Amino acid sequence: MDALEAIFRWMHVFAGIAWIGHLYFFNWVNGPLQAKLDGPTKKLVVPELMPRALYWFRWGAAYTWFTGILLIGMVYYMGQQAFATDATWSAGAVIMIVVTFLGFLIYDALWKSGLAITFAPAPSFRSSFLRSSLRCTSMWLTSAIAER
């Protein structure tokens, strides 16, 4: 079981590296390059480059997700950590689940309320702030639960 878990863990790491590497490629390499290409060159380069890059990007994301789900199943379900006899639902665990699955609804309701009129930064700030705050909250709650 440990060997299989290690194999899936490394597959997850390599797929994640491929996925994030292609994300960096699209944002920092391909975007500026496409802005500098002229029309005839774009017609030659884009049909050759983009389908290949998007293929690996898409499958890198899919394999990262799939191996992550397998790891969750192996570590927590098969490893009996999900059903520990002394484990209880703490307030932190409940908050983490609510934020994970309902956070976007709370966020949208807050921005459609009167609070958005009082404090209305640029839309790019709002989305990046939401993403970073949700990540920080979920990481903090996960580490707090793991310490118990």
Question: Which features characterize this protein?
Answer:
5 helices, 2 domains, mainly alpha, 148 residues, 85% helix
Structure explained in plain terms:
It is a single chain. This protein has helices at 2-36, 39-78, 91-112, 115-118, 123-147. With 148 residues, the protein is mostly helical. It folds into two domains: 2-78; 91-147. It starts with a helix and ends with a helix. The relative contact order is 0.08.
Approximate strand percentage: under 5%
Number of domains: 2
Largest sheet: none
Q: How large is the radius of gyration?
A: 21 Å
- The tally of helices reads 5
Structure class: mainly alpha
What is the CA-CA span between the terminal residues? Answer: 25 Å
| Counted beta strands | 0
- What best-fitting shape do the alpha-carbon axes yield? flat
**How would you classify the quaternary structure?**
single chain
The low-pLDDT segments are: none
Specify the helix fraction band: over 70%
The helix/strand order is HHHHH
